[in-house]
Amino acid sequence: MDCVVTGGNVKVLAKAIHSLSRIGDELYVEPQEDGLALRSVNSSRSAYACFLFAPLFFSRYTVHSGHTFRCKMAIKSVQAVFRSLASLEKTVEKCHIELDDQNNRLTFTLHCKHGLMKTHNLSFQDSESLQAVFDKDSYANVFRSNPRLLVDTVMHFPPSLEEVTVSVSDERMWVRNHVEEEGDQSKAMLTELCLASDEFDHFAVQAHNSVTFCLKELRGLLVFAESTGLPMSMYFDEPGSPVVLSVTDSVLEGNFVLATLSDDSNHRKKNNSRGAHTLPPPPPDDFMNDDIDSYLIAMDTSVAPGPSATGPPTPQLADSICSKQTAAASHRTRLHSEEEEEDKTTDSGRPPNKKFCSLFFGSVLPPSPQMSTQPVSSQQVLASDSEDDVQ
Amino acid sequence: MKFRGKILDIACLNHFTRVITTISKLTKTCVLRLTPDNLFFVLSGKVANGGVSMWCELSQANFFDEYQMEGVSPEDNEICLEVTPENLSRALKTLQNAKAVKVKLTKKHCPCLTIAAELPTLSSINRVVTHDVPVDVIPRRLWNEFKEPSMPDFDVSIYLPPLKTLKNIVDRMKNLSNFLVMEANLSGEMNLKIETDLVSVTTHFKDLGNPPWGDEASQDGGPSQSRDPEDMAQARVDIRKLQQFLMGQQVNPSKAMCNIVHERVVHLILLHEDVSLQYFIPAVA
């Protein structure tokens, strides 16, 4: 392999490596006929990411046909080559990536201004091909938007938040934070954002589902999408089946495949979300509708009820006292949560299943060029690594 | 109990956010008291808080375009909530370009202050964000813990030097010692001192001026008036508490004052038109 990246594309390559570093610790490098593939997978194999840079992305791109080469290396060492993204743009004129057969090294040479040259010789391990199988065309729900929309969306969630739940209807998308333990719920801040379909470039919904997936990887790809200004697409079906995030350009393609919480655990969540959002369909101008009575909180009854109840309350207040007196006699403001608890007990027959399904199973893939980055239509899910951890 | 407020003006929103962010730097949890005219953020000086107490008073009319509340009862027309200012601050910070922000008391999975905002978009429909910040409703029998602290019978009251200067000095002193002695007199002088076995450092300020408190403040015939103007009143305080107060400052006060009760307490007051923030740091022996 011998390839040269020049100008602004060096930064694009660097950004891609940085967003891959959000996924896993190792970078899988595979020079193919149709371009250079860079991939990564996380340790629990619930997230997979792949960038394919077409030969046209490079100012020179040669692979030795007939002799396939694949390797993996620590992503940290590759990141170190492109350490400072800010100075990269100003100083680096071209980047030369070459396989040094004799020493078994992958050589990154940065040609900087003023004739400065930085060479990094990185050691690597041979590896099998890493490939998740997914077919973007088969997904029921497809969205595409400017990355800015999603950047503005995730901005509302705290950096510590791990997972978000995305629900869709024909016209809207709701994004909210996923709170894992019921016990935590009372303390956790819940954030919800509603996006209208016309904020998207493309909004196609066939299945009114909600899926829960990790925010970290989404943020990772967003950094890339935002810096390159490429529109970002999102594909998903149902809880438990992976969500695909992708950016595409004429010379590059990036796909992030993320596991979603499986149906079992999501079922209830989904019901909840139904209850919360779809059953009483939020009127479009919900924001402006302000019936203050609907925001009534149960009376605090810790003071002897006598004086406050016999006082001259306004009619509304009297109402509220009557309605709450029975329910909120001892437990303040727990009315609603009791109902919820009932739901839970009926549901609790199921073992709590909060696990993400692993997407990828170890297997050796024949080195066929079509298999490598093209979406494969079979339902079999493949990926490979040195260890054979078949599910 | 009902509460609903709406902020339309972006400058008000900004200001409100800054006040809450300042409070979030001072304490993890505090009590929000809502009355028909004011919002109060209160931290009572319990041992768990390190004896520090706080009182922040906002006039609702200066922030909210609409403000409706109905307290527990007509006689006790107040609402008292325990809140995490950090959550409120985080929610508000992401809404700085909102067209309108509503804050309301709601009952979701638990009592919440719901902050809902309408964000501008390119599309015809606005983007709506809601943050449900869980709160605890404080029962009326505990309300008396959250009354306004009475002005301590101070020995010396003095205007503070620019807070930024103060912060820089305290930050440096923090590296040398855990305790700092604040002392001031009635002729506009204030000293910040640290003393350890190895080093003594003092920063002197002069010509700071002493606020005229009038008759009502000079308690019991005014011990402060009979006081020798050169005589220093001092208090030794935990330097971290003072640092915390200076660090979180986002209010840009028009007046900053400090009252010292000799060897008892340091009472810091920030005034900014419609906002007043008081912070009490107990002296340690």
From TrEMBL, chain A:
One of its GO terms (cellular component) is checkpoint clamp complex. InterPro entries: DNA_clamp_sf (IPR046938), Rad9 (IPR026584), Rad9/Ddc1 (IPR007268). GO terms for molecular function: double-stranded DNA 3'-5' DNA exonuclease activity. The keyword Nucleus applies. It is found in: Nucleus. The keyword rRNA-binding does not apply. Keywords: DNA damage, Exonuclease, Hydrolase, Nuclease, Nucleus, Phosphoprotein. Residues 263-291, 303-391 are annotated as: Disordered. It holds the Pfam family Rad9. It comes from the Eukaryota. Residues 370-383 have a biased composition (Polar residues). It catalyses: Exonucleolytic cleavage in the 3'- to 5'-direction to yield nucleoside 5'-phosphates. One of its GO terms (biological process) is DNA repair. Belongs to the rad9 family. Component of the 9-1-1 cell-cycle checkpoint response complex that plays a major role in DNA repair. The 9-1-1 complex is recruited to DNA lesion upon damage by the RAD17-replication factor C (RFC) clamp loader complex. Acts then as a sliding clamp platform on DNA for several proteins involved in long-patch base excision repair (LP-BER). This is Cell cycle checkpoint control protein.
From TrEMBL, chain B:
The keyword Cytoplasm applies. Belongs to the HUS1 family. This is Checkpoint protein. GO terms for cellular component: checkpoint clamp complex; cytosol; nucleolus; site of double-strand break. Component of the toroidal 9-1-1 (RAD9-RAD1-HUS1) complex, composed of RAD9A, RAD1 and HUS1. The 9-1-1 complex associates with LIG1, POLB, FEN1, RAD17, HDAC1, RPA1 and RPA2. The 9-1-1 complex associates with the RAD17-RFC complex. HUS1 interacts with POLB, HDAC1, FEN1, PCNA and RAD9B. HUS1 does not interact with RAD17. Interacts with DNAJC7. Component of the 9-1-1 cell-cycle checkpoint response complex that plays a major role in DNA repair. The 9-1-1 complex is recruited to DNA lesion upon damage by the RAD17-replication factor C (RFC) clamp loader complex. Acts then as a sliding clamp platform on DNA for several proteins involved in long-patch base excision repair (LP-BER). GO terms for biological process: double-strand break repair via homologous recombination; meiotic DNA integrity checkpoint signaling; mitotic DNA replication checkpoint signaling; mitotic intra-S DNA damage checkpoint signaling; nucleotide-excision repair; response to radiation; telomere maintenance. Keywords: Cytoplasm, DNA damage, Nucleus. It holds the Pfam family Hus1. InterPro entries: DNA_clamp_sf (IPR046938), HUS1 (IPR016580), HUS1/Mec3 (IPR007150). It comes from Perca flavescens. Residues 209-231 are annotated as: Disordered. It is found in: Cytoplasm, Cytosol; Nucleus. Its main location: cytoplasm. Signal peptide: none annotated.
